[in-house]
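Before a colleague's protein record goes any further, I have to sign it off. What it holds is a sequence and that sequence's fold in token form. Would you go through it and say whether the fold makes sense for this chain? The record follows directly below this note.
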Amino acid sequence: MKYFDREELDYTLGPNCKVEAQKLQSESAELVRVREAGKSIKSGKFNAKHFAEFSAALQSRVKRTLKEHQLRAAYHLHLTQNGANFSVPGSGKTSVVLALYEKLRSEGKVNGLFVVGPAACFGPWRTEFFETLGRKPHAVVLAGGEKLSRKAEYFKPNDHLAELYLSTFQTMTNDQAEVKLLFQRSGMSLFFVVDEAHYIKQIGGNWSSAAIELARFAKYRCILTGTPCPHSFADLFTLFEFLWPTNDPIGPDNRIKIRTAEQEGEIETAQQLLKKTVGPMFYRVTKADLGLTRPIFHPPIIIPMNEHEQFVYDAITLRIRNSAKFDYSKNAEVLTRLRRARIVRLRQCSAYVGLLTKPLSDCDVDVTKTSDLYEIIRTYDQLETPAKLLQLEKLVSKILGRKEKVVVWCNFIGALKLIQKHFQKLKVNCELLYGETPVEQTSIEQGETRERLINRFKDAKSGLDVLIANPGACAESISLHKTCHHAIYYDLSYNCAQYLQSLDRIHRVGGSETQEAHYYFLQNKNAIDRDVMDNLDRKVQKMFGVLENKLPQPDSVGDENQEEIQAYERLFKAD
């Protein structure tokens, strides 16, 4: 129609085409309304009386006292109806959604929540539901478990349906047909929430495609993530397509323009296009808005390695340099994998020499079992205790001596288990929290689950004062800040997103307004640890240096695989 009008061509719409045109015009008009509403809230030029009435109505329905930034975020989501909250972790995004959900439920507009996210978010959603609304929901976990029992949940009679459904991205995708039927059931009006929404950023991916298809049948939609575009501005495309599956607010032309601008380094141009198209549709609270105490980052503790671990580290470094001499004969894809593996080997060696006994995929510096070096690695535990572990012992003892709790972050499972074994020998009550710690599901009747373990650690009187955790499995969706104010990083990875998430476990709304958070970093002297830390510092400063009214720079959290390649080039550029 626009083309015909521009070319001054006469045309007539048939009945069916006219209906479609009216539908599209209606949707376009709704996007215009949403953009104007979003702009008014973010600029502070909204109707103050209407906001006050909304806030009073919202607060009257919830148990928890909401903060000003949470009320504004809820107001933004209410007016946009399908909105995104990109606020930093710890700002109370879950409470915002739950408060609005309760208002909509009381008005008869929705009667249930369908939340998709990583399994680690299930416990927090149930906990926050009670603490925000003052009642326990009938909650059902649709993830894992016995397949037939799980799928039966979708077909229960209306009077036995749940109020809170919790599903993983994988299960949502596998059960897409059943989820669709649940959304379409007579009498069902579900509020569809994607938590940690950066998991559905992949255009055309199975998870993102399933979420977008199901979004068509939800009454309200919302996405939550503190890292909306970890690798590229294009990561935002599927997020907003989920919110508006029948009327993409960015549009195909702007997608091309944004990609081109980013590829050509014209970041400001890409940001302005996004600001114009979807800027009003998301709400973002920064750390500065939260009124929290400034966290204390203690200077890194530099530790000279012990004799044997230094010998092994130097030997591995030498092997990498020798292997690099033949890199010219390898194709680019193979070389990329090799260089990544070499960096991982250095990180493993610095964390715990014993990790080197297991072969690493695509690694050309693995130690043969017949070598003298392998014998040192194999018997390492009998030769010495890592210097970093001894320093960790001193630091933890100091914190426990003040009757305080501490979380120890470590990236390698073998090192996690080494730390636990060491502290158990010292009669310190500690537990592991990592990928193999089961998430509570309908099929688990007993035994230690992630939720129970976290609750024990958060209990000030439980006696569990040391939590040894893996950022890859536990950096998201858990809150430890009310009873734990110390975090020790035994080692670090190049994954800045996980690092930022882990920082916020002990620095959050609801306690950190008055309580300081302390961070400690253990680093081996003259090892890869320094490069990892410097890299993370650069990324964090870049991210927090972005103005609030812009989207976070995509490079601010980076691609871990690419970071390892760049680290290799920095550390071995002379070769």
